[in-house]
C-alpha cells in the first residue's frame, strides 16, 4: 500500500518535472549574470523571464540589450529571485555560489553556466541549458545555426593566418585555454599571447609586442572609460605608435563578453575584419 | 629574637647558558635563607648579583627552589594555595590598563576568590590594605594617572591584600623620592611588626643599614654575607662586592653609613 | 556603569537591530507579512514564499551576523587582554588573514565541497597557527610596534600564499569567487551555515569568557599575575584556542570582516572601567550589534551590487585604528 503510494508520487513527480509537450511551459526563469541574460533573452519569451542582471541592459556588454528593456532587473540575491517567482535560476559561477545553493535548498531549479573554453563545449552547454529551461527546440536550432555559421567561416579561413595581439584596456590579453583564444583562432588569426606560450587571462607586455610585431591589434572594451585601473596601458606612447602603424580592430565587447552565445557573432566580426597575413615592418 | 623561621628557602644551583662563551654560567649557587616573623630582611648585592633571580625562585616563577612557609612545603600546593602564602611585588611595575586603584588592589584577592563577586572578607582585606598604604583617597582614580610614589603604594597595597604571611618585594623604592622611600620602608617595618616576614631587594645601602633587621648579600650568584647590617656591611665587604668605601657614624646610638667613594677592590 | 547594566543596554540595542535587519530584503514585504512569515503557525498565510523568505533567507543571515559579530568582538577583547594592547585585533594581528588562507586552501583543494566541516576546520587551523606564530614572533607582552609589525608580516605571508593559491587556480572565475568571499559577506547564507559555525564559535566564546580573571591579573604584568596563582601557559592556550575557534569559524563562514574586535572593545572599555574581564561579555554583545548594523548598512546604501560587509567594517574601523595609534604615540 505504502509502496504503491510512493510509486504513484514518484510518477507524479516525474510528470511534473517534465514539461508537457502539448502544454505551454510557463516556468519563469531568472539569471544572475550577463551570459545567462543573453540566453534567456534569446531562447525565452519575455513572459517567462522573471529577472535579469543589471548588465543585461548595458549595450556595451549585452548583445541583447534592446530586448532587455522593460524587463525586470534584480540584484543577484536569493530573496529577490524567490519573490520574483523564479522557478529556474541560471547562475554564472562568478561569485554567486552561496545564492545558488540557498535557492536550491528552497526548491528552485538551479542551472550553473560555468565559462566554457571551446566552441564545442559552448554548444553542448547551450543545448543542455536550453533543455533545462524547457526551450530545447529553440536552443537546438540556435546551436545548429551557430555550428553552420562556424563551418562557413572556417571554410574561408586562410592557410596563412595573420598574427594578432588581443588587448583589453588594462593590458590583459588571453592565452591558451581561454575562449578568446578559441575565438581568435576560429576567426582566422594566430593569437600572439598563445604563440608566446601564455595561458589564461594574463597580461601581454609591451616588450613581447615589440619583439613579435603582430599584423593586427584587436582591442575590446577600449570604449569603456573607467573599465580598468590600468586603463593607462592603452595610452602608452609605444602602444599608440604600434597601434597607429597597423590595422586595429575594435571588437564590440558585447560580442565577446561570454564564452557561449553570442560568441559566434564575435568570431564572424573578427573574420570579416581580418587583414591579409604578412610581415609587418615598423 | 631568632624564633622558628616563617620563610625558609633552599635553592639548588641555577645555571644559565652563556650565549657568547657557549658554556654555562652560574646564575645562583645553592644557598639557604630564612626570614622570621617580624623580620625585615634586606637582599643586597650589585647589579647582576642574582637578587631578582633569587626572589623569583622563592616566588616559584623560576627554577626549583625548596620553599617552606610556616614549616609547610609549598611544592605540594596548588598555584592558588601557594599564592596565598607568598605575596610577591615584582620589580617591573607594569600597568597596562587605566583601571581604578580599588580594582588594582582587589586583584590581590584573586587567589582567594572562587566565584565572580567579592566576599565581605575580600572587601575587608582590600580596605585594610588601602588604609595601611594610605591610598584610600585614590580608590576611584585610574592607576595610570597616579604619581610614582602613589603608584608604588597602590602596588604594595595590592600585595598586602593577598594577606599572605610572607612579602617578597623587588626594589619597591626604586624611582621614588626620599620622602616616599621612607614612607614605604616605614610601612614595611610596620607590616613586620604585625607578624609578617618581609624580604626586600634594596640598592640603597644606607637605607638598608638603617631599616633592615638583617641583610643578605649576594655576589656573583653566591651568598657572601647574612647577618645584622652593622656587622655584615664592613669595609672589606663593601670594597670586595661593590668596589666602594663608605663613611660611617652614629646617630642617637644607631650606626649609619653613606657610600662615599669608589675604590679598587 | 556596571558590566551587567551595559550588557543589558547592548542586548536591547541588539534586539532592535535584529528586528530592523529582519525587515530588510529585496522582497517588498509589509510588517504583517513579515510576522506571518516568521510565525506561520500563529498567523497563517497562503503564500509559501513568505515563510521561505523570512525563515530561510533573512533569519539565517541575521543569526549568522550575531554569531560572527559576537565571535569577532569577544576575540578582540580577549586577545587585547592577553597581549595587553588595545590594537590586538584578529584582522590586525594577522589571525583573520591566516584563517582566510586556511579557508581558501580548503576551497582550492575542493575540500569544502566534499566535506562540509572542512571549511570551518581549515579556518580554525589557520587562525590557531597564525596566533601561535604571532605569539612566538612578538612575544607574550608585545609593544604596539612589535605587535603591528608582526601582524603585517603574518598578514602579508598569509596574503601572499592566498594569492599564490589564486594564481595557481585554473579558473579566473574561481578567483573572483574567492576574492569576493574574502571581502566578507553574510548574503544568502543558509541555516546550515549557522549550524556549522555556531558550535565552534560557542565553544570558543565559552573558553574566552572563562579567561576573565586571568586577564584581569595580567593587568599587573606576567610576574605579578603568576604570583597571584594564575597559570599563564594555560591562560595563553585558553585564549588562543578560544580566539582561533571563534575567529576561524566566523571567517570561514562569513569571509574576513575586520575591525569589529577593535572598534567594540575600544568603545566599551571606558564604560566598564577598563577591567579586561568586564569588557568580555559586552564586547560579544557589542560585536554582534555592530556586525548587524553593518549588514543593515550594506543593504541600505544604494550601490550597483550589494556592498561587501568587510569593506563597510573597514571603513568604520580605520578611524578607530588611527585614533589608537595616535594615543599609543602620545603615551610612548
Describe this entry's structure for a reader.
The complex is a heterotrimer of chains A (282), B (265) and C (332). By secondary structure, chain A is α/β, with parallel strands linked by helices. Chain A has 13 helices and 8 strands. Chain B has a domain of 66 residues. In chain B, the strands form 4 sheets. Chain B has a 6-stranded mixed beta sheet, sandwiched between helices. In chain B, strands 4-1-6-7 form a 4-stranded antiparallel beta sheet, with no helix packed on it. In chain B, helix 4 packs antiparallel against helix 5. The mean pLDDT of chain B is 89. The chains are: A alpha/beta (282), B alpha/beta (265), C mainly alpha (332). Chains A and C meet through helix 4 and helix 5 of A and helix 3 and helix 8 of C.
Summary?
The complex is a heterotrimer of chains A (282), B (265) and C (332). By secondary structure, chain A is α/β, with parallel strands linked by helices.
Which properties best describe this structure?
heterotrimer, A: 282 residues, Rossmann fold, 2 domains, 4-stranded parallel β-sheet, 42% helix, elongated, disordered N terminus, C: 332 residues, mainly alpha, ABC transporter involved in vitamin B12 uptake, BtuC
CATH class of chain C: Mainly Alpha
Number of strands of chain B: 14
Number of helices of chain B: 9
What structural category do the secondary elements of chain B indicate? alpha/beta
Task: Tell me which oligomeric state these chains represent.
Answer: heterotrimer
Strand content of chain C: under 5%
Low-confidence stretches of chain B: none
What is the CA-based Rg of chain B, rounded?
19 Å
Largest sheet of chain C: none
How many domain regions of chain C? 1
Helical residues, percent of chain B? 25-40%
Strand content of chain B: 25-35%
The separation of the N and C termini of chain B measures: 35 Å
Q: Spell out the helices and strands of chain B N to C.
A: EEEEEHEEHEHHHEHEHEEHHEE
Largest sheet of chain B: 6 strands, mixed
| Radius of gyration of CA atoms of chain C, rounded to a whole number | 20 Å
How would you spell out the order of helices and strands of chain C? HHHHHHHHHHHHHHH
What global shape of chain B is seen?
Answer: globular
Secondary structure layout plus pairing:
The complex is a heterotrimer of chains A (about 280), B (about 260) and C (about 325).
Chain A: H1 2-17, E1 29-31, H2 34-43, E2 49-51, H3 65-68, H4 78-83, E3 88-91, H5 97-105, E4 109-112, H6 119-132, H7 136-155, E5 163-167, H8 179-186, E6 190-191, H9 192-195, H10 206-211, E7 216-220, H11 237-244, E8 248-251, H12 253-256, H13 263-272
Parallel strand pairs in A: 1-2, 1-3, 3-4, 5-6, 5-7, 7-8
Helix pairs in contact in A: 6-7, 7-13
Chain B: E1 5-10, E2 14-17, E3 24-28, E4 32-36, E5 40-44, H1 51-58, E6 66-69, E7 72-73, H2 79-85, E8 86-89, H3 101-106, H4 120-132, H5 148-161, E9 166-170, H6 178-193, E10 197-201, H7 205-211, E11 214-219, E12 222-227, H8 229-232, H9 235-242, E13 244-251, E14 254-262
Parallel strand pairs in B: 5-10, 5-11, 8-9, 9-10
Antiparallel strand pairs in B: 1-4, 1-6, 2-3, 6-7, 11-12, 13-14
Helix pairs in contact in B: 4-5
Chain C: H1 3-22, H2 31-38, H3 48-83, H4 95-108, H5 111-114, H6 118-138, H7 144-168, H8 172-182, H9 191-209, H10 212-218, H11 222-227, H12 232-254, H13 260-268, H14 276-300, H15 309-331
Helix pairs in contact in C: 1-14, 2-3, 3-9, 3-12, 3-13, 3-14, 4-6, 4-7, 4-12, 6-7, 6-12, 9-12, 10-14, 13-14, 13-15
